Each structure stands twice: as C-alpha cells, then as structure tokens.
Amino acid sequence: MLKFLFTVIRRDVLLAARRRGDWLTAQFFFVMVVSMFPLGVGPEPTMLRTIGPGVVWVAALLASLLSLGRLFADDYRDGSLEQMLLSPYPNTLLALGKAIAHWLINGIPLLLIAPVLGIQFNLPPEALWILVLSLAIGTPILSLLGSIGAALTLGLRGGGVLVTLLILPLYVPALIFGAGAVEGVISGTGAEAHLSLLGAFLMMSLLLAPWVSAMALKVSVE
Amino acid sequence: MTQSMLSAHDLACERGDRLLFRNLGFELQSGEALMIRGGNGHGKTSLLRILCGLSAPAAGEVRWRNQPISQAHEQFGREMAYIGHANGIKDDLTPVENLRLAAALGGRELDVSQATRALGQLGLSRCLDIPARVLSFGQRRRVALAGLMTAGAMLWILDEPLTGLDVHGVAMVEQLIRDHVVAGGMAIMTTHQALALDGVTLRSLSVGE
User: Fold this and answer.
1) In chain A, how many H helices and how many E strands?
2) Chain A closest CA to B14's CA: distance in Å?
3) Chain B nearest C-alpha distance from A17 (Å)
C-alpha cells in the first residue's frame, strides 16, 4: 500500500523533472504577482507591512490554482489515469499520492521563495518565519482541496475557470488563518491561535479530500 | 464442469438518454477468447469499460471468480489488464521506464532486462531509451502491448488492439493472444479487422443489434 503511494509520488516528481518549463511557470507567476504590489502601491513601509501577508497568501492561492489544471488532465488525456484507477490499490491512495506530489512540486518552492518576497514588504524577521511556517501548513491544504476541483472538472471544456470558481471559496479558511497568523505577529497578538486552526484545517483536508477526489475521479473517467 | 471465471449478468448500458444494450450476459472460462462484434456506436467500448470496472452498468453486474468486481477491486486489478483507445504511455518517459512504472503501480517488480525482453519481442529493441514522445503511433501501441505481456494478468481486455499496427504488428498481436489463451488465459477484444486465431476457442458476442 505505502509502496504504491510512494510510486505515485515518485512518478509525478519524475514527470515534473522531465518538463521543467511547465513546472516553473507557476513559481514565476507567484514571484511576479507578489512583486507587482510594491511597485503598484508605492514604497510606503507601514502600508506594505500591512498588506504583505495577505498579498503573499493570495498569490500562493492563485499560483496553486494555475498548476492544478494539469494535476490529472495530462494523465487523463494519455490514458494513464485509467490504468492507475484499475490498479489493485484503493483509488483514495492514488488521489492522496497525486496531491502530495503536487505539494512537493509546487508547494515547497513557494516556501523557499516566500521569505525573500516578504522582505520586499518590509516584514520583520519573526514575521518572515511565521509566514514560512503558515505556508508550510497551508500549502498542503491548497494541494489537497485543489485535487478535488481538478478531479471534478476533468474532461470538461473550460475546466480551468471552473476549478477557480469551485475551489477558491474552499481556500478562504486557509487564507484567513494563514495571513492572520503573520498579521498576528506584526501586531503583537501572537500567531499560535491562527496556526492551530490552520493545522486543524490541514488534518480535516487530509482525511476528507483524497476520498472525495477519488470519487470525483471515478465519476469523471466514466 | 469448469467454473466460469468471468461472468456478466443482464448488463444494460445507457449513454445520455439512449439505451445501447440490455439483457446482455455471457460466461467465460479460462482458455477462451471472446470477440465483441458490433458497428460503430453500438457500445463495444462501453461494454469493455463496464467489464473492466471503469464504468458502472445501468443494470446488471459483472462477476470475477464469482465475486462482483466492485467488491473484488484488489484481486481483479491484479488479474486483469486493459488496453483502451489511449495507450496509457507517458510521452516524457522511455519505453523501458514506462513498463517499469506501470509494473510498480500494479504492485509488481520488473527489472530492466525483463522490460527490454518484452519490448524486443514486439520489435522495439531499437528505441528502448528514447522518450515515447518521438515514437510513431504504431510504436506507442506496441509499447502498450508490451505492457500487457509484462502485466502477468490472466484476463486481457483489449479495445481495438490493432489500431495503427502494420502487418508484422498484427501478426505479433495474433501470436500474443494465441499464446496467452492457449496457456489458459482469457482475452476479450473488439476489432474491425479479421484476426487469425487458429487453435483458440473463440466465441463471439454481438452488441446493440
């Protein structure tokens, strides 16, 4: 069982490594969107510090949506998704493996760039740490919930826009608690409460999302 | 009396509002091949997808070793191999990587020499380490068929296995199916071309008449 999970993850990471161009698009998008804000809003330090956490988080949501379109679509088109659904292991594991791989490929790079982008917004060092921590807990949620949307819209025309409409509302709690944690540090109220809630939300997504997206995959492939 | 391995009972299939077929049933024992016949749009592919468990029938059920396939997901997944219209080959991986990955996803170990041998048998020994992207349509079909050989499955479900194959390819597939069925395996297939399967118990079934 675990071996199957690792094989699914290894497979997706290998495929991403073979197509680096596709993979880098979402990362560059993230950097670009975040960098546009200081240029557009102006160099007022207190203002930048206030909007910083929210901007980084919203950009992370959009970047993850951008890469979600391809989560199942390529495998659906070339028939390998069917083959994986017919494998002797539960389809829930397949959905979980795909979501974990999506996080490794698209989530972790965001964590690494985020502190550098935070500096543009004049965030203090302790807030930068919390920003990375909140993204570390939050980006897996984006991959897990996003896999539901990607599975539901598989094979539909205009699926990309539909994913956005379906999934963005589900991302709202992650956005509120994630950005809230960083703002808490800046305003001095602390980040623990927000981070705990974010952690609880992650646990819930981890339990429910693979199961739901496995069912959605079954329906979409039919 | 031999017990039937695969059986279908009163299957019905709907696409949209249209009823493609109903009251369709058959039994298949090991060492038998079943050819599904019917014109375009009569539901051959839909039937095969129901038989392999990708779609649910509108009525009826499919049983494998006397268990409904929806409950025997694990066992059926191990003993059944399916090739659909799409090959299930990743364009960015080489044929050898494709076969090894497919085996790993099925819970099997496949070393490079075994994969190479299967690909060589299908006439692909010259393109073992180039990405599948640059292979021709027929060559990619052959990679999928090589995957069938290494799957070690008892039941093969093949949807138009001859698409894109040249004369040698067709002869290879005939040989492959013959060997598999004579050795006690089972095959269910659709094709619009004539297959020479001498020495094989070939039954046929018409859909959507």
Assistant:
1) 10, 0
2) 12
3) 10
Q: Note the pLDDT of residue A156.
A: 83
Using a CB–CB cut-off of 8 Å, the residues of A that contact B are 3-4, 7-8, 11, 14-15, 18-19, 77-80, 82-90, 221-222
The token pair at B193 is 């071309």
Give the pairing of strands B80-83 and B155-159: parallel
B88 touches chain A (CB under 8 A): yes
Render pLDDT for B89-148 as a digit per residue (tens, 0 to 9).
999 999 999 999 999 998 888 999 999 999 998 888 888 889 999 999 999 999 999 999
This prediction has a pTM of 0.92
Contact between B81 and A81 under an 8 Å Cβ cutoff? The reply is no
Closest Cα in chain A, distance from residue B87 (Å) = 6
The two three-digit tokens of residue B178, written as one number: 């013959």
Q: Which two tokens stand for residue B49?
A: 């997808």
Both structure tokens of B72: 């025997």
ipTM attached to this prediction: 0.91
**Token representation of residue B7:** 């059986």
Residues B202 and A152: their CA atoms lie apart, in Å, by 40
Q: Does B80 touch chain A (CB under 8 A)?
A: yes
Residue with tokens 């046929």: B204
Question: CB-based contacts of B119: which residues, under 8 Å, 6+ apart?
Answer: B95, B96, B99, B125, B128, B142, B143, B146
pLDDT tens, residue by residue, B131-154: 999 999 999 999 999 999 898 899
Count the neighbouring beta carbons within 10 Å of the beta carbon of residue A77. 12
Domains located in chain B, CATH noted: 6-206 (3.40.50.300)
Alpha-carbon distance values, B65 to A79, B6, B32, B45, B155 (Å): 27, 6, 15, 23, 12
Strand partners, B62: B8
Please state whether beta strands B201-206 and B32-37 pair in parallel, antiparallel, or not at all (unpaired).
parallel
Angle at CA of residue B174, ends B169 and B175, nearest 5°: 95
By C-alpha distance, the chain B residue nearest A79 is B88
Mean predicted confidence (pLDDT) in B72-84? 91
Identify the residue whose tokens are 């016949």. B37
- Using N-to-C axis directions, what is the helix angle for A45-68 and A20-41, rounded to 10°? 150
Is B74's CB within 8 Å of A14's CB? no
Whether A218 and A85 have beta carbons less than 8 Å apart is answered as: yes
CA distance A94 to A111: 25
* Distance, CA of A74 to CA of A86 (rounded, Å): 17
